């Protein structure tokens, strides 16, 4: 996931606080908690989030939370994290589709 922007909703700091929850701090200084416990219910690669040890392995990449590298990488977009952590609405440009907004898997060869 490569982005060339710096927005208010970019994640700048994240800390695992237990019970599948991550404390997030954003570029604009707002903070909040993202509860990862609902993600395993989506199935597929997101079932990995049922394991607290896996949830702890995140890193921040381009303002997003990411797990893994290359093929099988999982990202949660900063706009989604910002919404879930602060309760602020999604940006108008985000299109609501059939799946969860802002979640992607990156299967690169």
Feature tags:
109 residues; mainly beta; NE0471 N-terminal domain-like; four-stranded antiparallel beta sheet; three-stranded antiparallel beta sheet; 2 helices; disordered C terminus
Output the CATH topology: NE0471 N-terminal domain-like
The total of helices stands at: 2
Number of β-strand runs: 7
Radius of gyration: 13 Å
Shape: globular
Q: What's the main sheet like? A: 4 strands, antiparallel
* Helical coverage, percent range: 10-25%
How many separate structural domains? Answer: 1
Bin the strand percentage: 25-35%
Distance between the termini: 14 Å
Uncertain segments: 101-109
Return the CATH architecture: 2-Layer Sandwich
Name the strands of the widest sheet in spatial order.
Answer: 4-5-6-7
What structural category characterises the helix and strand content?
A: mainly beta
What string gives the helices and strands in order? EEEHEEEHE
The average pLDDT score comes to 83
CATH class: Alpha Beta
